[in-house]
Amino acid sequence: DTEVTQTPKHLVMGMTNKKSLKCEQHMGHRAMYWYKQKAKKPPELMFVYSYEKLSINESVPSRFSPECPNSSLLNLHLHALQPEDSALYLCASSQVGSYNEQFFGPGTRLTVL
Amino acid sequence: SQQGEEDPQALSIQEGENATMNCSYKTSINNLQWYRQNSGRGLVHLILIRSNEREKHSGRLRVTLDTSKKSSSLLITASRAADTASYFCATDSSGGYNKLIFGAGTRLAVHP
Q1: pLDDT per residue as tens digits for the range B66-99
Q2: Whole-number pLDDT of residue B3
Q3: Count of CB contacts below 8 A, A vs B?
């Protein structure tokens, strides 16, 4: 199984809502990532988890809260988002360390009203 | 933050022609990877080239890396309509975290 799944595919939320994005992989990867991608722009790294511990936070606002409850799951909790946070949120996984390809999920298209 | 630039930003060719995309980056790297993205979907890994390698092939793909010029190129030979996608280079300078910084990307359109 070389698939990374993400739910939901689409999410519309108000600025006062709390929602969560979910990501799952069963490839035995111990590194997982969240990226944000605006239209016609490249993905921008948000967070890196290694062995279920947060290893990189790219100065992401606290209204985005990542969580890695186990080696297969990665969540992104959203609270009090702004309209400019509307984007495609991509999850990826890989073996830990450099020289490893990352496997991406299809993404969650988030719209903040 | 973007590591570098890709050119061209957009490329339109006919089926059967070759497509060349270039990527430049700013800092020393461990490796450089190329990914493809079909219209608003997830990215698919194409090829990884290490900093001590100069050229790598995979099927119809050929990647070169010139660390002295901090640049890489991706050549797709005998292109097909199914190659229509955005192509991104991504560099890892993180010393073990596999932290990828993506270039701006090239949008390739292959016409039948």
Answers
A1: 999 999 999 999 999 999 999 999 999 887 888 9
A2: 60
A3: 69
Q: What angle do CA B64, A38, A89 make, to 5 degrees?
A: 95
Q: Does the pLDDT value for residue A1 go beyond 90? A: no
User: What sign does the CA torsion over B26, B41, A26, A18 have?
Assistant: positive
CA dist B12 and A94 (Å) reads: 33
Instruction: From chain B, pick out residues whose CB is under 8 angstroms from the CB of A98.
Output: 30-31, 92, 94-98
Burial of A108 from C-beta contacts in 10 A (0-12 / 13-18 / 19+): buried
Q: Which of A19, A2, A33, A3 is nearest to A81 (CA)?
A: A19
Structural tokens at position A78 = 């959203």
Best mutation target, A88, A98, A101, to test chain B (most B CBs within 10 A): A98
